[in-house]
Amino acid sequence: MTRAATVLLLVAVGCRARTPPPPPLEVSPPGVTVTLRWTAAVDLDLYVTDPSLETAYFANPRTASGGVLEVDARCADPPRDDHSERVRWTKPPPGRYRVGVDFLETCRGRPREAPFSLTVDVDGHRQVVTGRARHAERDPRVFEFTVAAPAAGEVLR
Fold first, then answer.
1. Is the pTM of this model over 0.85?
2. Is 3 helix (H, G, I), strand (E, B) or coil?
3. What are phi and psi of 71, to 5 degrees?
4. Model confidence pLDDT, tens digit, residues 99-137
5. 10 lies in which domain range?
6. Does some domain include residue 154?
7. CB atoms within 10 A of CB 130
8. How far apart, in Å, are the Cα atoms of 29 and each of 33, 43, 91, 95, 97?
9. DSSP secondary-structure letter at 36?
10. What is the C-alpha to C-alpha distance for residues 121 and 21, in angstroms, rounded to an integer?
11. Which residues in the chain land under pLDDT 50?
12. Does residue 24 lie in a domain region?
């Protein structure tokens, strides 16, 4: 199996998979990109644990395997109608990845839960999962996916 034919293995925990929305105008870059999106006035945090069990998140924005927290939304940011956080690997190591979401604090008002969507792009293959985060109830595994090892003789980009 080539990296371009990588299949995502989804293990949903309290979430439901849905048909992906129409493709955005932007083309998904090669590698792994995990994006968390929400609209409530809260601080959600994205955690992505790589196959070596190191986690990319706000307190560890760069992993030894090349994961980078590219976007980090906080309550201190100017008020917006939509929020997002993104973790990316340009050359992801093969193996299992675990994605979690944490609802740390409310920014304005008192929402106790916030709907969110997670989009995982692996070499152009997209999976979207939706869920609800509850205040002070960390969900360390919203879902998992696997990046396949390159086929024998295949050269990584």
1. no
2. helix
3. -135, 130
4. 999 998 888 777 888 999 999 999 889 999 999 998 877
5. 3-16+31-147
6. no
7. 15
8. 8, 27, 11, 19, 18
9. E
10. 13
11. 1-25
12. no
Of 17, 2, 43, 6, give the one whose Cα is nearest residue 130: 17
101 has which bridge partners? 46, 139
Residue 118 lies inside a defined structural domain of this protein: yes
Please list, in sequence order, all residues whose beta carbon lies within 8 angstroms of the beta carbon of residue 84, skipping any fewer than 6 positions away: 35, 36, 37, 38, 71, 73
DSSP annotation string for 95-140: EEEEEEEEEEEESSS--SEEEEEEEEEETTEEEEEEEEEETTB-EE
The order of strands in the sheet holding 139-147 is: 55-56, 42-49, 95-106, 139-147
Bridge partners of 46, per DSSP, are 101
β-strands 113-122, 32-38 pairing: antiparallel
Please, what's the b/e burial string for 79-113 (b: 16 or more CB within 10 A of its CB; e: otherwise)?
eeeebbbbbbbeebbeeebbbbbbbeebbeeeeee
In total, how many domains does the chain have? 1
The answer as to whether 131 is a domain residue is yes
Given a contact cutoff of 8 angstroms between Cβ atoms, the answer to whether 50 and 98 are in contact is no
Helix (H, G, I), strand (E, B) or coil at 76: coil
